[in-house]
Amino acid sequence: MATAATATTIPRLLSPTTTHQTLRSTLSSFTKPDSLKTIRLATKLHVSSPTNKPISTTTATTKPTQETIFFDGGAHYGDLVANLLLGFTLVWLPLTLAAVLRGFFLRYRFTNLRVTVISGLTGQDRSDFSYKVVKDVQVVPRFIGEWGDVIITLRDGTKVDLRSVPRFREIAKYCLSMAEKKSGDELEEGGGAKGF
Predict the structure, then answer these.
(1) Does a structural domain hold residue 57?
(2) How many other CB atoms are there within 10 angstroms of residue 111's CB atom?
(3) How far is the CA of 4 from the CAs of 15, 52, 81, in angstroms?
(4) Within a 10 A sphere around the Cβ of 22, how many other Cβ atoms?
(5) Membrane-spanning residues where (predicted)?
(6) What domain count does the chain have?
(7) What count of other Cβ atoms lies within 10 Å of the Cβ of residue 165?
(8) Burial bucket for residue 145 (CB in 10 Å: 0-12, 13-18, 19+)
(9) Cβ neighbourhood burial of 154 (10 Å; 0-12, 13-18, 19+)
(10) Given a cut of 90, is residue 38 above it in pLDDT?
(11) What is the CATH number of the domain that holds 94?
């Protein structure tokens, strides 16, 4: 009896209609059940201040912290064009590559509160510093003064070199004026000399 049962099942499995039905039932067992929900990756949100604290309504003692943008942009386009033209020589090729990377992956932002340099392929590399830490600002003009480098010296001796900045003279004057303003505000808040 067992041999008769196996003999009848083998021809049924080899027929085209039965094979299609068997594969369909086999594949349906591998599909996801409808009860499972799609798992989504949670993205982290970095918040600078806690959201559960109420915002105080007294503004008489606090300074306005609304950030206004003075300049927001990338490297000067003339730097990229000039380096691309000179890039046909093999000697200038590394400088051309640096100019292309500056042109596409570097942004400068100067606001009334801070200087921000955003770089990297996805903008993940970000450097911020306040005008309170700025000691000196110098400029180096490039290509007959169309664009230039801004070198900001911080109080701890660090030099921040911002290359191919458009409107570099205006930006340097703005940085110096904001640094003087912030240092003047610190002296007014401090009320005199500190120490022993």
Answers:
(1) no
(2) 17
(3) 18, 75, 84
(4) 13
(5) 80-105
(6) 1
(7) 24
(8) exposed
(9) middle
(10) no
(11) 2.30.29.30
Let me know if residue 110 belongs to a domain: yes
Closest CA relative to residue 117, chosen from 86, 72, 78 = 72
Residues contacting 137, CB < 8 A, separation 6+:
150, 151, 152, 153, 172, 175, 176, 179
Q: Which residue has the tokens 């918040």?
A: 47
Residue with tokens 């200087």: 115
pLDDT band at 36 (very low <50, low <70, confident <90, very high): very low
Which residues, 6 or more positions from 152, have their beta carbon under 8 angstroms from its beta carbon? 115, 134, 136, 137, 159, 160, 162, 175
CA distance 14 to 7: 12
- Give the list of residues 6+ apart from residue 95 with CB closer than 8 angstroms, or none: 83, 86, 87
| pLDDT at residue 191 greater than cutoff 80 | no
